Amino acid sequence: MAATAPQLPDVDFESMPAEELIRWSHAEFGTRLVLTCSWQKQSSALVHMVSELGLPIDVVELDTQLFFKESYETREALVERYGLTLIRPEVITVAEQHKREGPNLWESDPDRCCHIRKVEPLLAALEPYDAWISGIRRDQSPSRASTPKLEWSERYDVWKVHPLADWDEKRVWAYIHVNEIPYNPLHDTGYRSIGCIPCTRPTRPDEEERAGRWAGSDKLECGIHLDEPIKETT
Ligand code: SF4
Question: From 23, 85, 171, 181, which residue has the greatest number of CB atoms within 10 Å?
Fold first, then answer.
């Protein structure tokens, strides 16, 4: 059962730079603060930022087992460079999903597929935490344009912390290049937003950053950043 938002100090989160928001969140939530990664450019920036701040923040990998090999190579490069110990939520294998739900569920019912491979593992992963840092940004798509720096999620019973909410794509790249941070090489080949292989294509320069995700359908989000009550889709 979702709880109501706990009281927080009266702080102007919107004016906080990314590093300050992460520092404040760690001071407020301590070890009950977690960062999630799916090995796009935002993951690279946030892993580096947390490391530079010297804060012991848990890192959860949201791996659907359907990522590109370049995403897994990026994970390995970041693990090696920053000495990460990843927490990996359980997810059923793709073979098991084929058996239970029929082949290629991402084609027949992508919402159900995202529910099984992303939303349910994330729900379990966030159980021990009070606050969740994610890399979503307002300029990624109209559906993310009003993302606040900090918001309560009834669905997950956590505060959602968005240090990069007011960063644009250029600023993420500048941060990565100036700091020589390992990043997903697919970004250099037209993939401005990267998810699972079956649901990601490269993006043209005149398209929105996330236009290559579930292209050709009206699906815009995998569902982990929506805050509707969980619907059982079986
Ligand atoms: S992005 Fe596609 S393949 Fe990945 S979990 Fe969602 S529907 Fe399934």
Answer: 181
| Domains by residue range for the chain, with CATH | 16-191 (3.40.50.620)
**Contact 126 CB / ligand 1 (< 6 Å):** no
Handedness of CA 233, 123, 228, 157 (dihedral sign): positive
pLDDT (0 to 100) of residue 224: 66
Going edge to edge, which strands form the sheet with 158-161?
86-87, 58-61, 33-37, 131-133, 158-161, 150-153
What's the token pair of residue 151?
Answer: 């918001």
Residue from 37, 114, 199, 222 carrying the catalytic annotation: 222
pLDDT tens string 38-47: 999 999 999 9
Q: What is the pTM of this model?
A: 0.92
Burial 200-221 (b: 16+ CB within 10 A, else e): beebeeeebbbbbbbeeeeebb
Q: Which atom of ligand 1 is nearest to the CA of 111?
A: 7
Tell me the Ramachandran region of residue 199: left when phi exceeds 0, alpha when psi lies from -120 to 50, beta otherwise.
alpha
